[in-house]
Write a structure and sequence with these properties.
Layout lengths: L1 H16 L15 H14 L8 E2 L8 E2 L5 H48 L6 H14 L1 H7 L7 H17 L8 H21 L3 H18 L10 H22 L11 H22 L5 H22 L1 H15 L20 H17 L1 H9 L6 H18 L4 H26 L4 H4 L2 H12 L1 H7 L8 H9 L10 E3 L5 H6 L16 H10 L4 H10 L2 E6 L1 H4 L12 E2 L2 E2 L1 H6 L23 E6 L15 E5 L3 E6 L5 E10 L2 E10 L5 E6 L10 E3 L2 E5 L5 E3 L3 H6 L2 E2 L7
Parallel strand pairs: 3-4, 9-16
Antiparallel strand pairs: 1-2, 4-8, 5-6, 7-8, 9-12, 10-11, 10-13, 10-14, 14-15
Length: about 725
């Protein structure tokens, strides 16, 4: 118990220490976009319990967007949020939801200890081996990153779902000789796990599929299997409960049978698993004298026939199942293919793959095949093989998409603990007189690994976190005046949740990408790749009054076919600046007279992030916040073809810049310039001072552009240029 308490305390301490970013602003503010949107959903649910919203009017603005997430996690968080608000106000509600998530993360560690202890063979080192697994589960990089303070996400319940389903499948005994109360408990547990799994994660049928080989094997191998006790009735009841819990969302978002949404597809797939398991029981009972291989063949033939008939009756099942496997699991969906957490750990070489796995799962993850062999080879039968299947399949999923590394964490830790136990048992057999001391070798080895492995040790020495640019712009937007008819914000989709939740402003796209509304997502993507006129057209159609952009979304996303990236070495890439229409968004909307790059005439920069681009020779915020304004009108006379250049000193976070705009005189000698940047601007992050206007070869003369003129679109007097 002392060891277990120490492991739980360590798990809690490293997760709190790693969450410093959430406290960087002086208050509890998560920086993760998905967490912020979960908090918004929890707040919306808390205001209308027990109803969970399936449509958010502030998504895909101004039409409203459909929410594809399952309701379970947000419903539980809404209860925690209301309790926290009762004690500590609005910020107390957010903190209570975060503590719920943090507690679930520690629970995963404790369950990893329990499972390792339950499946390990009798040995003096069994307890220390279980503690070793818990220690590793507490420190694996993917585990800390996904359950640290400041994360409020359903992924922790994904991990718990597979962990509990696997624990359940390992002990199922459907034989009729088992006591009836035990078999009924099996069905109750199966129903609860199936229903809760689907209601917290739309992809939960995948985890049901992972444990199905164990459940089918138990049913087909039992001498006299009974339906009650096999898990089939429980899965069927769980599917019905999940369908009932999903029905209110389906009524709102309208996706009744869709792999990308919480729909009736997921309960149907779980019901299909229940039918397959029930068929296995029937086959085994009809072939009482046959061994399990013959039963498997009979089940397979009957299953193929029944499955084919079902697909003929429900063709949508095959279509959506295929779309889910290809689009979601194999990342063929064009949006999912761009998200970091959906990228594979597999690299071009075995060494590259091992390094990638090590970064997410530490040495235990990189050496998992070796540790699996170390303990499975001792007694490769029964429960040991089922356990190996769960460990290996969860690890394979992590190789396919790094997001599944979260789910693999307890199984990787378990495998390492079992391998250390196997090695310790060999030592004890060699030195039986030292068994009392050698029994603690697994825990000591895990502690030593935690200190020596940089991937694990980083959790023990977290680096201090600075402010997050997305959080900064969200908090800043909360203080902007909202113009009626232009309430929305056009922001990169992966910063939409910060703007939505922290800024309290509707967004065109958020972290759910194309799911809420494909057309809105396309508009938000196109807006940052076109010139100002087309961007403003999208803004008008979408009732947008503010734009958020900068190196955060332009670097690496907006490419020129002939120019590559916006930076070349320590400076700007002129070819990119001249060939990408949205280039001024990188520079606060400024133009570049020497390159002929025109300034944006109606975007006033009034926010700049404190975090700047690293590796270039001049400071540049990674993110700007622009307000759409009419722009002041400057007009003048000059020799035909002469250029008028306006320079306005602009300072953000103490870093000096020169904002430039220019216009060329026509054949009649007239020039006009629309200027969106006042020379008396003063915001918490951006300040300007009096500008200088040079026309042709004339002197640079002082020029004041009042903010009132910029907002009202008024003319500003300009001294005539010498002719």
């Amino acid at each position: 118990m002392l060891g277990l308490t120490a492991v739980a305390g360590l798990a809690l301490a490293v997760r709190v220490a790693a969450g410093g970013e959430a406290l960087a602003t002086g208050a509890f503010v998560p920086s993760d976009g998905d967490s912020l949107y979960h908090l918004r959903r929890m707040a919306m649910t808390a205001a209308d319990l027990p109803r969970v919203p399936g449509v958010d009017p502030w998504l895909a603005w101004p039409d409203g967007g459909r929410v594809q997430w399952s309701p379970g996690f947000d419903l539980a968080g809404a209860v925690a949020l209301r309790l926290g608000q009762a004690v500590g106000g609005p910020s107390g509600g957010w903190l209570a939801a975060a503590l719920l998530h943090l507690g679930l993360g520690v629970l995963v560690v404790l369950l990893a200890v329990e499972l390792t202890h339950a499946v390990a063979p009798a040995s003096p080192a069994r307890g220390p081996a279980a503690l070793a697994a818990g220690l590793l589960a507490a420190l694996l990089p993917q585990a800390v990153a996904s359950t640290r303070l400041g994360i409020v996400d359903h992924h922790v319940l994904e991990t718990l779902t597979l962990l509990l389903l696997g624990r359940f499948a390992l002990v199922v005994d459907p034989d009729a000789a088992c006591p009836a109360p035990s078999r009924w408990r099996t069905e109750i547990v199966a129903a609860l796990l199936a229903a809760s799994g689907v209601l917290v994660f739309a992809g939960a049928p995948l985890y049901v599929a992972l444990v199905m080989p164990l459940l089918l094997g138990a049913a087909l191998a039992a001498p006299r299997p009974a339906l009650i006790g096999s898990g089939a009735p429980g899965l069927a009841v769980g599917a019905a409960l999940a369908a009932a819990g999903t029905a209110p969302l389906v009524a709102q978002h309208g996706h009744a049978f869709d792999y990308g949404f919480a729909s009736y597809l997921q309960p149907t797939l779980v019901a299909a698993a229940a039918a397959a398991l029930g068929l296995a029981v029937v086959v085994a009972r009809r072939l009482p004298g046959q061994r399990w291989p013959a039963r498997c063949v009979a089940w397979l033939l009957l299953g193929l026939a029944a499955g084919g008939a079902a697909l003929l009756l429900v063709p949508r099942l095959a279509a959506e199942g295929r779309a889910g496997l290809v689009g979601w699991l194999l990342r063929r969906d064009p949006w999912l293919a761009r998200i970091d957490e959906f990228q594979p750990m597999v690299r071009a070489t075995a060494t590259g793959t091992a390094v990638a796995v090590w970064r997410y799962l530490g040495t235990p993850g990189a050496l998992l095949p070796l540790s699996l062999f170390a303990w499975v080879a001792r007694r490769p039968r029964g429960r040991r093989l089922g356990l190996a299947w769960l460990v290996g399949s969860s690890w394979a999923l992590a190789l396919l998409q790094n997001r599944f590394g979260r789910v693999a964490v307890p199984w990787v830790a378990l495998s390492a603990g079992m391998a250390l136990l196997a090695a310790t048992d060999a030592l004890i057999a060699w030195r039986p007189g030292q068994a009392r001391w050698l029994a603690w070798a697994p825990a000591a080895a895990a502690a030593l690994l935690a200190l020596l492995d940089p991937a694990l040790a980083s959790a023990l020495r977290p680096e201090p976190a600075g402010p997050d640019a997305g959080v900064e712009v969200g908090l800043d937007l909360a203080g902007w005046d909202v113009v009626q008819g232009a309430e929305g914000v056009l922001a990169p989709w992966d910063l939409g949740n910060q703007v939505l939740t922290l800024g309290g402003r509707p967004v065109v796209a958020n972290g759910m990408g194309s799911y809420p509304d494909p057309r809105a997502f396309e508009d938000s993507e196109r807006a940052f790749q076109v010139g100002e006129a087309e961007l403003l057209g999208i803004a008008r159609a979408r009732r947008v009054g503010a734009v958020v952009a900068g190196a955060t979304n332009l670097f690496g996303r907006v490419r020129s076919a002939r120019a590559g990236l916006p930076f070349s070495g320590a400076g700007f890439n002129p070819a990119w600046l001249t060939s990408v229409p949205s280039a001024p968004l990188l520079l606060g909307g400024a133009g570049i007279p020497s390159l002929g790059v025109r300034h944006f005439e109606h975007l006033m920069p009034r926010f700049a992030s404190s975090f700047a681009v690293i590796g270039i020779d001049r400071p540049l915020p990674v993110l700007w916040g622009y307000e759409i304004v009419r722009g002041a009108r400057l007009e003048g006379l000059a020799p035909p073809g002469a250029r008028a250049v306006l320079e306005v000193p602009l300072e953000e976070h103490g870093r000096p810049h020169t904002w430039r705009a220019f216009a060329d005189a026509g054949p009649d000698g007239r020039w006009t310039m629309t200027v969106p940047l006042p020379t008396d601007l003063a915001t918490p992050t951006v300040r300007t001072t009096e500008g200088r206007l040079r026309v042709g070869d004339g002197p640079a003369l002082p020029l004041a552009v009042p903010e009132a003129a910029v907002r009202a679109g008024q003319p500003v007097a300009v001294a005539p240029a010498p002719r």
